[in-house]
Fold this sequence. Notes:
The protein is of the alpha/beta class. Helix content is about 40%, strand content about 20%. It has helices spanning about 15-20, 45-50, 65-75, 85-90, 110-120, 140-155, 165-170; strands spanning about 5, 30-35, 35-40, 50-55, 125-130, 155-160, 175-180, 180. The strands form 2 sheets. It has a 6-stranded mixed sheet with strand order 4-5-6-1-7-8, with helices on both faces. A two-stranded antiparallel sheet has the order 2-3. A hairpin with a 2-residue loop joins β2 (about 30-35) and β3 (about 35-40). The protein starts with a strand and ends with a strand. About 35% of the residues are buried. The mean pLDDT is about 95.
Amino acid sequence: GSLTALVGDNGAGKSTLLHMFAGLMRPVEGAIEVFGEAFSGFLPSDVRARMGFVGHAPFVYPDLTGNENLRFFAKLYGVTRTVADDMALLARVGLSDAADKLVRGYSRGMTQRLALARMLVQDPEVWLLDEPSTGLDAQGMALLQVLLSEARGRGRCVLAVTHDLAALGQVDREVRLRGGRLVQ
């Protein structure tokens, strides 16, 4: 139920740390502790399955529609969903009108909304967000804050890299990195 902002200058190591938590990179030295277990290599798939990641790359397929992307990721995550579930989720993130359009025609903000929806399909315990407000307009920023507030209310843990603390709304703690080191 907490929201932690990971902040620092460009090159401070924020995204690298987030990628390690997401299991996309392994630490060169030391370990990542997740769910009470320390891992020095890549995270096991059962641990990664409990974590959702939205990064600079949206990890959606441009040659699929928004609907098709959600169906694909539901199968990948082993989640049973109906077309109505997907339509409701796309409506939730403001993409009803684009549900059956190829993602390659989406704007950056629309793609970011779809990436958030992709993560919501998984319903992860831990949300790892790298600049989640990228490309979002005022409505998208408001949606992001609602989603973060709801996640916290449902006991989800959110770790978000940001240069814009205001975009996240209420933050429980701020962690500052400089040169790959914790400074605050």
